[in-house]
Amino acid sequence: MSLRRKATGTDQVVGFGLVTVSLIIFAYYTAWVILLPFIDSQHVIHKYFLPRAYAIIIPLAAGLLLLLFVGKS
């Protein structure tokens, strides 16, 4: 007897949404950290990104929160 269940339509939509959001965040962060330093600082594209200090602060804060919540369980 198998305990596997088939994914419902809602499960698939939520999964697709999570993958889409993850890809958007990955593309934004990659452009922010890898490509933006090579573009002139006066270029208009810089107004769509946070200051570069946040490129380190945000992942550190997220990692710290993850460790705190995983450690509690």
UniProtKB/TrEMBL annotation:
UniProt organism field: Jaculus jaculus (Lesser Egyptian jerboa)
GO cellular component: dolichol-phosphate-mannose synthase complex; endoplasmic reticulum membrane
Signal peptide: none
Example GO BP: dolichol phosphate mannose biosynthetic process
Recorded name of the encoding gene: Dpm2
This protein's pathway: Protein modification; protein glycosylation
Name used for this protein in its record: Dolichol phosphate-mannose biosynthesis regulatory protein
Chief site of localization: endoplasmic reticulum
Pfam families cross-referenced by the UniProt entry: DPM2 (PF07297)
Keyword DNA damage part of the UniProt annotation: no
Membrane topology, record value: Multi-pass membrane protein
InterPro entries: DPM2 (IPR009914)
GO molecular function list: enzyme regulator activity
Subcellular location: Endoplasmic reticulum membrane
UniProt subunit comment: Component of the dolichol-phosphate mannose (DPM) synthase complex composed of DPM1, DPM2 and DPM3; in the complex interacts directly with DPM3. Component of the glycosylphosphatidylinositol-N-acetylglucosaminyltransferase (GPI-GnT) complex composed at least by PIGA, PIGC, PIGH, PIGP, PIGQ, PIGY and DPM2. Interacts with PIGA, PIGC and PIGQ.
Keyword ATP-binding appears in the UniProt entry: no
Its biological purpose: Regulates the biosynthesis of dolichol phosphate-mannose. Regulatory subunit of the dolichol-phosphate mannose (DPM) synthase complex; essential for the ER localization and stable expression of DPM1. Part of the glycosylphosphatidylinositol-N-acetylglucosaminyltransferase (GPI-GnT) complex that catalyzes the transfer of N-acetylglucosamine from UDP-N-acetylglucosamine to phosphatidylinositol and participates in the first step of GPI biosynthesis. May act by regulating the GPI-GNT complex.
Keywords: Endoplasmic reticulum, Membrane, Transmembrane, Transmembrane helix
Transmembrane segments: 12-39, 51-70
UniProt family annotation: Belongs to the DPM2 family.
